[in-house]
Predict the 3D structure of the following.
Amino acid sequence: MTKAFRLIDLVKTFPGFQLGPLGLELEPGAVLGYVGPNASGKTTTFHCMAGITRPSSGTIEIFGRQAGPHDAAWKLDLGYVGDIHAFYENWTAEANLAFRSKFYPNWSQDRARELAKRFDLPLGAKAKNLSTGNRVKLSLVAALAHSPRLLLLDEPTSGLDPVVRREVLDTLFEVLESGERAIFYATHILTDISRLADRLAFLKAGKLAQVVAKDDLLAKWRRISFRYAGSLPELDSSVACDTEAGSHRLISSDHDRTLARLQAIGAEGIEVTRMTIDDIAVEILKGGNYVATR
Amino acid sequence: MLLNLTDLSDEPLQSQISRQIRAKILAGDLAAGEALPSIRALARDTRVSVITVQRGYEDLEREGLIHSRRGKGFFVSELGSDTKARMARDRLTGRMEPIVRAALAEGLASDEILAAAKAIVTSQSEARRIDAGQDDDNQGAQL
């Protein structure tokens, strides 16, 4: 099956920063969450994929077509919402959309109007008079109106109120239903994609720390507290541990293994609680001595 | 199909999905041979990822409650009454295990645990007899 995208040894260097080498791919019908702190390289990855900046080396394929400067066909499959919302400031939102429509054979004016209505975007207002939130909405409409097969979304809900945010997420669930489209979604707030994403890629200082099925993280990571009098031996899959007078509290990236070990050494009063996806992400990005789960 | 999923529960979404569909099947709300919603449609309706729904369906498939037909999706399987009874037994054992283990750890003897279980069964069948006596007229409507 053709992948929605493939990054092969993608590298982009700036003075003092290197993204990659990245190897990452996404199948149609799926959502990949891209998680990392500020300045970890998420936006740079998107800029390379959307053709805004040229990679230093490596290959990008979008639905089997190689991205490159000589042929722009691969861009027709892309919808990109990024950090820069470039519009003609003296034109209305509607005129900006009409201008965009000329580049995309698949553009649907009905779809653009329907989305504008759902997101409550004032189409008659000039771009320069749009609020931050309304500029994000205009970008979203512009990215979705040609029904692209791959959506690259870089913090698309920042600046949106909760009602519109929900409308946007609902739209994304609908986009996915055919099984032919894919979404690559960068955020540092996981709550937005905690239900949407199938897999999560964690990016830390330009390098992938982990790529994992979201449900596996939720199933395996636990906070575990227990009592143990002696000095604590090395424990399997233990990420971080607090100790206070014979009581211990640790975070486990694989609680079955940790619990088996705790029972073997005779720990008492064991309590296990689940962790939210945000808590887990923080631990992964802090980068303890976890055992990578695949 | 209406499911009621929440992020506020300790139960993973995947298990919430499989538990709620299992209950519909065992209660007869979903008949044998009936088609389940496609994985993608259910993911969209319940606002969860495709993989989560897929794993919920796989749990049910492993239990023999549903089966897939290539290219056609998932269907409710034909269940004999002995299969249903076995499932009910398995689930009872699973739920009782931590309770019995805790009771043993607190020093109760096995006949005390059995007596407690028996007392619950007795009080329930007592209650059911009273209910049945009162509700004879309404039974048709309830079904």
Remarks:
- Chain A has a mean pLDDT of 87.
- Chain A touches chain B at residues 29-31, 169-170, 173-174, 176-179, 194-199, 213-215, 218-219, 274 (CB under 8 Å).
